[in-house]
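Entry type: protein chain
Record version: 2
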Amino acid sequence: MSSSSDQTAQRRLAAVLAADVVGYSDLMSKDEEGTLARLRDLRRQVIEPRIRIHHGRLVKTIGDGFLCEFSSPVEAVRCAVDLQETVSQVSDGEIIKPLQLRIGINLGDIIIEEDGDIFGDGVNIASRLQKMALPGGICLSGKVHEEVRDKLPYQFEDHGEHRFKNIGRLIKVYCLLAGLDPSTISSEARPASSLRDRPSIAVLPFVNLTNDPEQEYFADGIVEDIIAALSRFRSVFVIARNSTFTYKGRNVGVPQIGRELGARYVLEGSVRRSGERIRITAQLVDAASGVHLWAEHYDGVMADVFDLQDRITTSVVGSIQPSIRAAEIERARRKRPESLDAYDLVMRSLPYVWALEFEANKEATRLIDKALLLDPGYPLALSLAAWCRGQRIVYNWSKNVQEDKRETLRQAQAAAAIAHDDPFILTVLGAALTITREYQRAESMLERSLTLDPNSAWAWNRSGWLHNYQHDPEVAIQHFERSLRLSPYDPMAFNCDMGIGCAHFIAKRYDQAAQWQEKGLMAKPSAAWIHRTLAPSYALAGDLDKGRDSVGELVKNYPGITISDIIAAMAFSKEAMSRFAEGLRLAGLAE
């Protein structure tokens, strides 16, 4: 290297990802133009966007491969898994041999040239690891594994130490995603809960009802934001923008659009400006029936146009998810019992899952267990099974707490190992880790979930409870309030009221604690477990008569329950637990 290069080159620690396309030469020999076109599309539509999403930098492309760097090894591994899964989905069903990647990741010192290119052992080891990986697989160095093993819910395989050419030391190697050729998997072997079972939505370009071309750009920006935000929902398949924007300016009916795009639901809207005032309308339509499932309008002023855009995106996405869920539940209800598959059974279970009642929990468990018999690897069913077990522990319904704790964590981790970037499934794992009182890992999972989907009302709810358990009531209240803003009509809204009530209890504001829990109980009178924290709130607020009445309601639904039973089920700090126990004692509950 020249002296001028020495002056311009820099060094830094980075996670380096190296990848190439498997069997590229063979593919080129059979169809040079077609292979080049497929590779170009793959880079533009999958590789480059995924690297950006995970905060990486594409350093260069080299024929059939590419090299990129990340400041975080966690993001590098997440990106690698995301790439492999997305490439697999894109290639699924191709008649010609599908494209597959091999990926290697290393954490090490790199040299950065003035033009942005990178060199050094950090890069060389990543390249050697990439050559070791199986098609569809990922190999990472021991350094990377050390950084990510407790932060990501993946199963890593230890492949021992290896000596690489021109590297003077042994390198510990771990593998992730062993690699699988999709052409070897029969249709019968594919999971029942495949991409095609998910509800699909097309977000159409919003109609500009004014002559101002600036509103056209504003409307398109909102639609693009909504598509990006909806794409975070793994339970919904979102039709790509390039497909939906072909309908811009065309007068085509929703049923026809649904048929042409294969969309079950269509979101349409409009933008109207009058002076400085602007109004956005949005409505969700069942494409098959033409029935409107949800509609709303948003008003603002042009001076706050960017804040308005963010608010609309958040509100629309927060409302669409429960609306689609309700429609999917109703669709499953209309099916004949003998034609139900795993997806339908899970949809039927959801109202019972969210009821947070003893009998409902039993029915939810029955339906989910039936779904898992049909499809043992269905991640949503595994996750919901874990959450149902978790409810039994938290609400004093469990007959074997230790076994339920083990199974809750096992099922939640199994679901996350399969669907490691599904925000809902990561939230359930966070909740399971809260139940086992592993708060640091729980926080990591919930943060990951909210990074993937900042509009998840339930993730904000669980984060609120986690902050309660960590004796941080003010942040807990903020997170519950955000959950309520995102989805005010959600079946779990009463649980946010309860969470805010408990936060006030932790902060020793007992009157407010009782008021918020009363609100939750009014919304859900059958949730008798609320009296476990409502009774001590009354008692410590000085209203012993209400406290005793509350304990009476509790004992009526939980015969023989004691203070020690309740304390064993809850996960608050010792200081808060001692005050709950004191309040229950004052209200007359047995030790």
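Comment: The first strand starts at residue 10 and ends at 21.
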